C-alpha cells in the first residue's frame, strides 16, 4: 500500500455539503482523490467549484432530509452517476434551542427525524448497496457526524443532545453488525465550530467567551479542521477501526 490515506477511485456521498463542516469534509475527501455526490436542500455551488477545481467529479442531489422520502433515491442517483458508492458521510442535521421546560413536540420530532431516524435509514440503504457491490475495491466506510453532546448534556437543546447521543450508540451497533461484512462505521464529534448551527452561540458575548475559555486551542474550529479525521476514517488507513466516535474539538473534552 503506497498511500493508506488515498481515496483515488472512490465515490463519497456527503449530506449537507453546501456549507460548514459538510463542505470542509467534501473538499478534504476530494483532495484525497474521491469523487463527490452532495445531497441536501441547498445548492452546493461553492463546494462543487472547489471539488471540480481539484479535478474530481461532482454530483448535486436535491434532497430534504426532514423525512425518509429521499433516502433510497439519493443512493440510487449516486450509483447511476458514478456506478457505485464507497463512502457515506451523514452530516446533514438541524438544531432547535429552547428551555427544556418549554420545548415543543414539533421541535423534538424535527430534530430527531433529521438527526437520527433519517441517518439510520440512509445508512441502511447505503449498506445494502455496499453489500451488493462487494468489497473487491476495498471496504465501505460510514462516517456519522456526532457532537460533543454525544458525550455531554449541554443546555437548551434536549432533542439535539438525545439525537447525537443516540447517533453515538447507533455507530456502535452498526459497527457490531457490519464489521465482518466489509463496512466500517465510525463517527466524528466536532467541537465548537464556526458554522450556521453555532451562530447564535457566537453572537452571544457571554456564551462565546465562556466557550473560548474552555477550548485549549483557544479558538473556534474551522470547517477545514475536520478534513483530516474524515479522510482517515474514509481511507484504508482505518480498515481496523470500528465503532469509535472521534472528537475533533481543540481539546474541549480534555479540559
Automatic annotation (TrEMBL):
Protein family according to the UniProt entry: Belongs to the short-chain dehydrogenases/reductases (SDR) family.
Record lineage: Bacteria, Pseudomonadati, Pseudomonadota, Alphaproteobacteria, Caulobacterales
Name used for this protein in its record: 2-dehydro-3-deoxy-D-gluconate 5-dehydrogenase
Top-rank EC class of the record's enzyme: oxidoreductase
Gene3D superfamilies linked: NAD(P)-binding Rossmann-like Domain
SUPFAM superfamilies, A to Z: NAD(P)-binding Rossmann-fold domains
Keywords: NAD, Oxidoreductase
PROSITE patterns the record matches: ADH_SHORT (PS00061)
Reactions catalysed: 2-dehydro-3-deoxy-D-gluconate + NAD(+) = 3-deoxy-D-glycero-2,5-hexodiulosonate + NADH + H(+)
Amino acid at each position: 500500500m503506497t498511500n493508506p490515506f488515498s481515496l483515488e477511485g472512490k465515490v463519497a456521498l456527503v449530506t449537507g455539503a453546501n456549507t460548514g463542516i459538510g463542505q470542509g469534509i467534501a473538499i478534504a475527501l476530494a483532495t484525497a482523490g474521491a469523487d463527490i455526490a452532495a445531497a441536501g436542500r441547498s445548492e452546493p455551488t461553492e463546494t462543487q467549484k472547489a471539488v471540480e477545481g481539484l479535478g474530481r467529479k461532482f454530483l448535486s442531489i436535491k434532497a430534504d432530509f426532514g423525512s425518509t422520502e429521499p433516502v433510497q433515491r439519493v443512493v440510487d442517483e449516486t450509483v447511476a452517476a458514478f456506478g457505485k458508492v464507497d463512502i457515506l458521510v451523514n452530516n446533514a442535521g438541524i438544531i432547535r434551542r429552547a428551555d427544556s421546560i418549554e420545548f415543543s413536540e414539533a421541535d423534538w420530532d424535527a430534530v430527531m427525524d433529521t438527526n437520527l431516524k433519517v441517518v439510520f435509514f440512509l445508512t441502511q440503504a447505503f449498506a445494502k448497496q455496499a453489500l451488493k457491490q462487494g468489497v473487491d475495491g476495498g471496504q465501505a466506510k460510514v462516517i456519522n457526524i456526532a457532537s460533543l453532546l454525544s458525550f455531554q448534556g449541554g443546555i437548551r437543546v434536549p432533542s439535539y443532545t438525545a439525537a447525537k447521543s443516540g447517533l453515538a450508540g447507533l455507530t456502535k451497533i452498526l459497527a457490531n453488525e457490519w464489521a465482518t461484512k466489509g463496512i466500517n462505521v465510525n463517527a466524528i464529534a466536532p467541537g465548537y465550530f464556526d458554522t450556521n448551527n453555532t451562530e447564535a452561540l457566537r453572537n452571544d458575548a457571554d456564551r462565546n467567551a465562556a466557550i473560548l475559555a474552555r477550548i485549549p486551542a483557544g479558538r473556534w474550529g474551522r470547517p477545514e479542521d475536520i478534513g483530516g479525521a474524515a479522510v482517515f476514517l474514509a481511507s484504508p488507513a482505518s480498515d481496523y477501526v470500528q465503532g469509535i466516535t472521534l472528537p475533533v474539538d481543540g481539546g474541549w473534552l480534555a479540559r
